Amino acid sequence: MNGVPKKNKIDPTEARRVVGRVLGENVRQHRSSYTVAVFAMLAVALSTAFVAYIFKDVINKIYYERREDLIIPISLGILAAFVIRGVATYVQSVTMAKVGNSIVARYQHRIFDHLMKLGLDFYHDTRSAQLAARINQNIGGVRELLDIVVTTIGKDIPTLIALVGTMILLDPLLSLFALLIGPPVLLTVRYLTKRLRVIHRESVTLNSHLLGAMQEATQGIAIVKAFTMEDQLRGKISKLITRAEERANKISRVSERLTPVTELIAGTAIASMIMYTGFRAVYDAQPPGAMFSFITAVLLAYDPVRRLARVQVGLERSLVNARMIYEILDIEPRQADSIGAVPITVPNGEVQFDNVSFGYGNGIQVLHNVSFTADAGKTTAIVGASGAGKSTLIGLVQRFYDIDGGRILVDGQDIAHVSKRSLRQSIAYVSQQPYLFEGTIADNIRYGRPDATDEEVIEAAKLANADEFIIKQPQSYGTEVGENGITLSGGQRQRLSIARAIVRNASILLLDEATSALDNESEKRVQQALERSMQGRTTIVIAHRLSTIVNADHIVVMEAGRVVEEGVHETLLARPNGVYARFYQLQGKDESPIILMDEDETAERMGPTE
Ligand code: ADP
């Protein structure tokens, strides 16, 4: 198994290792931002300490010594300390958020690049939808982990230590006074949450776009690889990542606005109370110091206590997230180009299987000594019951997997020694289930060849019988398809994927004929499109339809991973007791587009052949 490993418990050593790795990979790069954040945190702690300290003077100098000259400077000093605290908290939070968002973006780039490098074996063992969701949540977790570590150590613990000493001395009865600043803060919170809801909504839409695009790329990985679309997709994903990053920064700017506002309200309230009680103390000789210190201490201690209470839970969750990210990033791509791999040149496109043996690495051999040649420019149909190994053959031509024995030659060159990219660039692939990616119709065709001109795209669409329905779409070739785009019928999707293969202009065409029945008209158009796409190309087709098989230049009959018969329709039919002939007698005479030789029950009906 080569999918994402699953483990649930984390021991303390591993937890330390994960935290260490997250910090090691991210802190250095953001050194200057972290310096700003730490200075802001120090300013917060110092201004908090100043407030606690000044209360000694408030009580001693104002209430007992009745120094009228100090009332206003001390009150203003306290107000100033709160303003500094508010601004410093704002700076620290926005800086931390910026760093966090950039870390998210960086992990997203890393993960996507890594996913594009991993072989199909990884995707066979992993569910792509879950993978996408996992990535999304887990990256958030890594960022949270950093936030928790820096905020807790840098700010909350020192602040709390300073305040706890003061709080021990306090009178619980005075807590009622704290309620006075409640209403204005609540009003501010309500206003800001409303604003946040709107922005957050936009952000969620954008993120799901991003998720969708990633999910599609991973689900259609066979096509991405076959058409070497990695670079194009990377560019598209990069843009979405940048937009999501900007949105996330905006959210933090708005939500953090709450902090300076509440600090200002609290500061003003406390400063005015001090002025009020100060003047009263001077003129009426009533010392209300306990009340001030209580309110101040409660307000100042509230935030760090709340955060510290959540640290444990948050840290646990983040650790799990961070570890899951590394589980993906640590998977080694198995199938690299061989050392000294050269680009392949494919002038004709002859494909030769020479004694090929292969298994998927689970101990079961899937192909046994398969040999056949798909002549250049001709159509070779592969037929056989389900599980015979037809799709495996198609995958091996594209070198999705390395074979265990024998050779696969393309125009005489062993594909094991050429670069995968150049090999796949000389191949066009039409899968059984047509896959469309988020983007316009033109984008989807152009994935076949990024430098195709608009004229070439339209020409390919015309050959694929797709132009006729494309020009009827709201924005013609510019119409969005995929998750949030228009819905196309099965036949239309197939024709688009054929246009993508035509525009690629490759000498080899690999075709997995659809087994799902379309209505007659649609069927005819798809069939015609396929015939046009095959012209002048070496075509290897997993054939299900009688007409495709009968018209093929060469038929290869597979059974349980072996080639059992080869030839053209007439000669195969003429063999007494041949596999193909027996099959044809059973169900092939009918000219309708029936599914030939791909149903398990068909194989059963044929009975044992050995
Ligand atoms: P066909 O296309 O003729 O239906 P396949 O080439 O898909 O046959 O499958 C041939 C055999 O290989 C089957 O026994 C199938 O179970 C097995 N197989 C196919 N894909 C995988 C895979 N990714 N991992 C393990 N076994 C596989």
From TrEMBL:
<keyword id="KW-0812">Transmembrane</keyword>
<dbReference type="GO" id="GO:0005524">
    <property type="term" value="F:ATP binding"/>
</dbReference>
<dbReference type="InterPro" id="IPR036640">
    <property type="entry name" value="ABC1_TM_sf"/>
</dbReference>
<dbReference type="InterPro" id="IPR003439">
    <property type="entry name" value="ABC_transporter-like_ATP-bd"/>
</dbReference>
<feature type="transmembrane region" description="Helical">
    <location>
        <begin position="34"/>
        <end position="55"/>
    </location>
</feature>
<keyword id="KW-0067">ATP-binding</keyword>
<feature type="transmembrane region" description="Helical">
    <location>
        <begin position="70"/>
        <end position="91"/>
    </location>
</feature>
<feature type="domain" description="ABC transporter">
    <location>
        <begin position="351"/>
        <end position="585"/>
    </location>
</feature>
<dbReference type="InterPro" id="IPR027417">
    <property type="entry name" value="P-loop_NTPase"/>
</dbReference>
<dbReference type="Pfam" id="PF00005">
    <property type="entry name" value="ABC_tran"/>
</dbReference>
<keyword id="KW-1133">Transmembrane helix</keyword>
<dbReference type="InterPro" id="IPR039421">
    <property type="entry name" value="Type_1_exporter"/>
</dbReference>
<keyword id="KW-0472">Membrane</keyword>
<comment type="similarity">
    <text>Belongs to the ABC transporter superfamily.</text>
</comment>
<protein>
    <submittedName>
        <fullName>Subfamily B ATP-binding cassette protein MsbA</fullName>
    </submittedName>
</protein>
<keyword id="KW-0547">Nucleotide-binding</keyword>
<dbReference type="InterPro" id="IPR003593">
    <property type="entry name" value="AAA+_ATPase"/>
</dbReference>
<dbReference type="InterPro" id="IPR011527">
    <property type="entry name" value="ABC1_TM_dom"/>
</dbReference>
<dbReference type="InterPro" id="IPR017871">
    <property type="entry name" value="ABC_transporter-like_CS"/>
</dbReference>
<dbReference type="Pfam" id="PF00664">
    <property type="entry name" value="ABC_membrane"/>
</dbReference>
<feature type="domain" description="ABC transmembrane type-1">
    <location>
        <begin position="36"/>
        <end position="317"/>
    </location>
</feature>
